[in-house]
Amino acid sequence: AFTRIRGIFTQLDPPGAANSVAFGVNVLGFIVGSFTDAAGAGHGFFDRSGHFTQINFPGASSTDGNGINVEGVIVGDFFDNAGVEHGYIAQH
């Protein structure tokens, strides 16, 4: 994944990511998205100035971070172990 701010592209590489996708950014430049690790597990991520935090909903087989507002509230989705998709909201 990457961002383009003021004409500058920045590659986003969450630690341990085999690939990544950015889904949301707020006016403060905080970014959320998802990545797949080398074992094939899906994780969400929160990026604040290059400092990454994994987002893993408890008990989920896969988690995505889809959006973030100026207060740092993150919305996303996750899949439970039965493969059913759910939404979540989290405060960072």
Protein architecture, described:
By secondary structure, this protein is an all-beta fold. Helix content is 0%, strand content 62%. The strands form 3 sheets. A 4-stranded antiparallel beta sheet has the order 3-4-5-6, with no helix packed on it. A 3-stranded antiparallel beta sheet has the order 7-8-9, with no helix packed on it. The two termini are 21 Å apart.
The tally of helices reads: 0
Helix coverage percent of residues?
under 10%
What amount of the residues lies in strands? over 45%
Q: How would a crystallographer describe the biggest sheet?
A: 4 strands, antiparallel
End-to-end C-alpha gap: 21 Å
Gross morphology is globular
Query: What is the β-strand count?
Result: 9
Averaged pLDDT:
92
* Uncertain runs: none
Structural class: mainly beta
Offer a few descriptive terms:
92 residues; mainly beta; 4-stranded antiparallel sheet; 3-stranded antiparallel sheet; 62% strand; globular
